[in-house]
Amino acid sequence: MSSLSRDEVANLARLARIEMSEEELVNLASEFTVILEAVARVQEVAGADVAPTSHPLPLRNVFRPDVTTPSLTPEEALSGAPASEDQRFRVPQILGEEA
Amino acid sequence: MIRKSAAEMANALAQGAITSVALTQLHFNRIASVDKDVHAFLHLDTDGALAQAAAVDAKRAKGEKLSPLAGVPLALKDVLAQKGIPTTCGSKILEGWRPPYDSTVVSNLKKNDIVILGKTNMDEFAMGSSTENSAYGPTHNPWDLARIPGGSGGGSAASLAAFEAPLAIGTDTGGSIRQPAAVTGTVGVKPTYGGVSRYGLVAFSSSLDQAGPCARTVLDAALLHEAIAGHDPKDATSINAPVPQVVAAAKSADVKGMKIGVVKELNGDGYQPGVRARFEESLELLAKAGAEIVEVSCPNFEYALAAYYLIAPSEASSNLARFDAMRYGLRVGDIDGASAEEVMKLTREVGFGREVKCRIILGTYALSSGYYDAYYGSAQKVRTLITQDFTNAFAKADVLVSPTCPTTAFKIGEKSDDPLAMYLNDIATIPVNMAGIGGMSLPSGIADEDGLPVGFQIMSPVMKDERMYSVGAALEAALLGTWGAPILSKAPALGGVA
User: Fold this and answer.
1) Comparing C-alpha atoms, which of B222, B194, B191 is closest to residue B207?
2) Phi, then psi, of B427 in degrees rounded to 5
3) 8 Å CB contact of B300 and A56
4) The predicted structure's pLDDT at residue A1
5) How far apart are CA B173 and CA B316, in angstroms?
6) Which domain holds residue B416?
7) DSSP β-bridge partners for residue B44
8) In a domain, B67, yes or no
9) pLDDT digit string, tens, across residues B205-243
10) Known catalytic residues of B?
11) Which chain A residues are closer than 8 Å to B435 by Cβ?
C-alpha cells in the first residue's frame, strides 16, 4: 500500500521550495494516499521488457549557425523583475553569512 | 452577425458588408453584456484589438492580399505570451506580468491579421478539467451557468458558446481543448504534437502540451489550424514538415471508403447513457456517409490515466521551478536578511493554488530517488504500451473514435473535493497526448437526460491531422441535416440577451 506521512509531505514541500501550513501538510498527506494508490497501477504492466518513452518525438539536438540576432533590451528583460538595480536583477541573499 | 461562423464573417469582410472595426466592436458589446455572467475573459485588450482591426481595414481598402481569416476576432487562452498584455496562466504568481515578447502562436495570429480580443480564463497553469482552479474565479458554462465549462481551457470554449468570439486558441495537455469543447457544444482540436510551436506557451508538461484551434465549426477550426501551424526554429520539438492540408479536408468532408475504428475500451460502463446514445447515432451517420466502421482494441488505455498523473506532475514540478520570485512575477517576504530560498518558499506558498501545489509535490515524489523507477519510470513504460496500442489500431483503421468525455458538464463545486473523480473526465482524451497524435472533439448532440451537449472524439495518426477534419466535417454536415440548425441555437439566452 502506497501512502505518505505528514513528515514525508513536509520533506517534499521543502525540496519543492513551497512553504506549507500544518493543515495543508495533513490534508495533502491524506489526499496523496488516495492518489498514489490510483497511479501505482502503472506498475502492473510496466515489465522489464518494455522500453520507456519520455517523449512522443525522436528528439535530436537542433543546431543553428552562431550568429547575432535581435534580442530583448536590458529594459525589456527587466520589465517584469520584482526588483532591479543598474540593469541587473536584484535578488535576496543567496549564500549564507559564513560563505 | 456574431452568431455566424468565422468563415462567414471573413466572407462578409471580404465583400465589404462589414468592417473589422465594426465586427470587433460587436464582439466587445456582446462581451460587455454577457461576460459578467460567463466570466470567460481575464483581460480585454479593447484598444489593441480595435487598432489591429483598423489596420486590417486599411490594408483591405488599399486592395492588399489578405489571409483567409483577416479581420476576424479571436479569444486567446491566458497561457500564451502576448507582448505587453497581461499573461497570468490563471495564477496569482504571474499577476501583473506583461511578457516582453510574443509567443509564436501570437506572432502567427498577427501575421494573419486575426484580431486578438483578450485573454481567456483557465485552470491555474492548465491543471484541471473545470476552470474552477483559476485563481481569478470560475468560468460558467453558457448552457447552464451553474455548470463548469470544462478545463483547463474553459474560458476559450465558453467565449465561443456565448458568442463572445468566433475563434479561440486553447492548449491541450490531457484534454484541455477537447473536453471544454465537448461540454460547451463547440469544436476543439489538439494538433499532432510538434505541429504548432510551443514557443511562448507557458509550459505545464512539455512532452504533452500542444496549442490548437477552438471554433464553432470544423471548417473554422481548420482555417485557424493552418494559420497557427508550421515549423518554428524557436521550438526544438517543432516538426519540420509541411502543415497537413486540413482546410481542404474540411471542405471535402469526404469519408467514402475510410475505415473508422471504434476504441472498445473508451465506451461502456462509466459513460452516461446520453453520451453513448449520441455516439452510436454518430457512427450510424458516418456509415451512411460511406465510411466503414470497425472495432479496435487498445488494452493498455486503462493505464493511461495513472501514467498521465505521474508524467504530467513530474514534468510540471520541473517546469514550475522557474517561478522562483527572482526575475519576474510575484515576490513575497523580501525583507532584510531573508534568504533567496526563504523568499522563494513564501512566494510559492502564496502564489500557487492548491491543485498546483498538489501536483508539484506529487511530481517531486514521483521523481525522487528510491521512487523514480516505480512511478515515473513505470509511467514512461506505459506510455510506450499506449503508443503501441495506437500503432496497432491505426493498422486497422484510418482514424479512431470515441466519446470525448464520459459525462456532460457537471455542476460547479460538484467534484472539487474529489481529485480522482475530477481526473476521470480526461479518461478518453489522455491517450492522444501520451502518443503525440491528433485529436478533435465536435458536438454530436444533446443528452436526453440533462439537455446538455455531448462531444464526439476523432483521433488521427501523427501528422495525418487532415483525416480527423474529413471525418469531423462529414459528421458535422450529417448532424446538421438531422438537427436543422447548429447545436448552439439550442443553448439558452444569456442574461436576457439573445
Assistant:
1) B194
2) -60, -35
3) no
4) 46
5) 11
6) 6-301+383-490
7) B118
8) yes
9) 999 999 999 999 999 999 999 999 999 999 999 999 999
10) 77, 152, 176
11) 56
Phi, psi torsion values for B10, nearest 5 degrees: -60, -40
Nearest-CA distance B289 → chain A (Å):
33
Alpha-carbon span A76 to A66, nearest angstrom? 23
Give the Cβ contact number of residue B199 at 10 Å. Answer: 20
Amino acid at B470: S
User: From the list A31, A46, A52, which residue is nearest B358 (CB)?
Assistant: A31
Measure CB to CB from residue B306 to each of A41, A47, A50 and give the nearest one.
Answer: A41
Give per-residue pLDDT as tens, B319-331: 999 999 999 999 9
Specify the 3-state DSSP secondary structure of B135: coil
In a domain, residue B372? The reply is no
ipTM of this complex prediction, to 2 decimal places: 0.93
Asked if A31's CB is within 8 angstroms of B419's CB, the reply is yes
CATH number at residue B206: 3.90.1300.10
B interface mutation test: which of A14, A18, A90 has the most B CBs within 10 A?
A18
Cell of A97: 553569512
Residue A37 burial class via C-beta count within 10 angstroms: exposed 0-12, middle 13-18, buried 19 and up: middle
CB atoms within 10 A of CB B170: 33
H or E stretch including A6?
A: helix A6-15
Closest residue in B to A10 (Cα–Cα) = B361
Contact assignment for B357 to A28 by CB distance below 8 Å? yes
For chain B, the domain total comes to 1
- How many helical (H) and strand (E) elements, i.e. helices and strands, does chain B have? 16, 11
- Asked if the bond preceding B402 is cis, omega within 30° of 0, the reply is no
Residue B375 lies in a domain: no
pLDDT in tens, B26-51: 999 999 999 999 999 999 999 999 99
> Mind listing the pLDDT tens digit for each residue in B279-338?
999 999 999 999 999 999 999 999 999 999 999 999 999 999 999 999 999 999 999 889
Measure Cα distances from B126 to B96, B130, B132, B362, B461 in Å.
Answer: 18, 10, 11, 16, 25
Q: Which residues pair with B401 in a beta bridge?
A: B262, B458
CA atoms within 13 A on the CB side of B344: 19
Give strand pairing partners of B214.
B168, B188
Distance from CA of A34 to the nearest CA of B (A): 8
Helices (H), B146-272: 154-161, 178-184, 218-228, 246-252
Domain-located, residue B333:
no
C-alpha to C-alpha distances, B338 to A13, A96, B329, B331, nearest whole angstrom: 19, 10, 18, 12
Residue that has been written with the C-alpha cell 462589414 in this structure = B18
Q: What's at B220, amino acid-wise?
A: D
Kindly state the helix (H) or strand (E) to which residue B454 belongs, with its residue range.
strand B453-460
